[in-house]
């Protein structure tokens, strides 16, 4: 597989630090499973994080510090519990046509058995249970050749990993294994340019902002 579009640095560091929502971490984990280059980058990022921790000077702490830490851990939302980075990037590489291992936990080993719901003819989705705190979602999207996703921008980051087929948008052309790592400033309208349906794994931090009337009409129905 020839991956051309990779994770940006901020996304990678956030993932390695475990400070990402479960929805976004799933997409990152799947790209890492498909991309040897980003697997190496995550390892480097984790190593740097470890060195920084080792370099910290010990500081005086209050007597009840342990109780406070334990209480904080109890209250910690378990957003990343299902997807620990160290678990994923070892021995979990896959070839282009397989479902990446982190996604297999949700849909099994084949894209052919996914149950799709229709948005409009030629555009289908399948919800995944991973959420993010600000109302974002993770889902599979399947778009027929020649069809376009509705033009939209975002309130936060959007990650799109291509599992099958290809699309082009204002940023470039994306094929299997590529990840589109977009921030809120970009408005784009992906157009499928492969002969087969394009299947993507998408996560958003917050609901998309549609710029067309149709987008605004279907948004309450699909929850995008
Ligand atoms: Zn990569």
Automatic annotation (TrEMBL):
PROSITE patterns: PROKAR_LIPOPROTEIN (PS51257). The lineage of its organism: Bacteria, Pseudomonadati, Pseudomonadota, Gammaproteobacteria, Oceanospirillales. Pfam families: Cupin_7. It comes from Neptunomonas marina. CDD domains: cupin_ChrR (cd20301). Residues 111-204 form the ChrR-like cupin domain. The chain crosses the membrane at residues 12-34. The keyword Transport does not apply. Coiled coil: none annotated. This is Transcriptional regulator. Keywords: Membrane, Transmembrane, Transmembrane helix.
């Amino acid at each position: 597989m020839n991956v051309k579009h990779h994770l940006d640095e901020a996304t990678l560091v956030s993932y390695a630090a475990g400070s990402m929502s479960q929805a976004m971490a799933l997409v990152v984990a799947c790209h890492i499973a498909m991309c040897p280059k980003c697997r190496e980058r995550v390892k480097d990022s984790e190593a740097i994080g470890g060195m920084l921790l080792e370099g910290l000077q010990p500081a005086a702490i209050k007597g009840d510090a342990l109780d406070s830490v334990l209480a904080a851990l109890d209250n910690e939302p378990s957003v990343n519990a299902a997807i620990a980075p160290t678990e994923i990037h070892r021995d979990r590489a896959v070839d282009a046509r397989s479902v990446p291992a982190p996604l297999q936990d949700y849909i099994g080993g084949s894209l052919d058995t996914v149950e799709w719901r229709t948005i409009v003819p030629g555009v289908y989705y399948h919800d995944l249970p991973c959420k993010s705190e600000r109302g974002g979602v993770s889902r599979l999207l399947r778009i027929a050749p020649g069809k376009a996703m509705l033009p939209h921008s975002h309130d936060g980051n959007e990650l799109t990993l291509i599992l099958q087929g290809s699309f082009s948008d204002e940023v470039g052309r994306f094929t299997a294994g590529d990840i589109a790592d977009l921030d809120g400033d970009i408005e784009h309208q992906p157009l499928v340019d492969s002969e087969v349906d394009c299947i993507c794994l998408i996560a958003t931090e917050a609901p998309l902002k549609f710029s067309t009337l149709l987008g605004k009409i279907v948004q309450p129905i699909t929850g995008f």
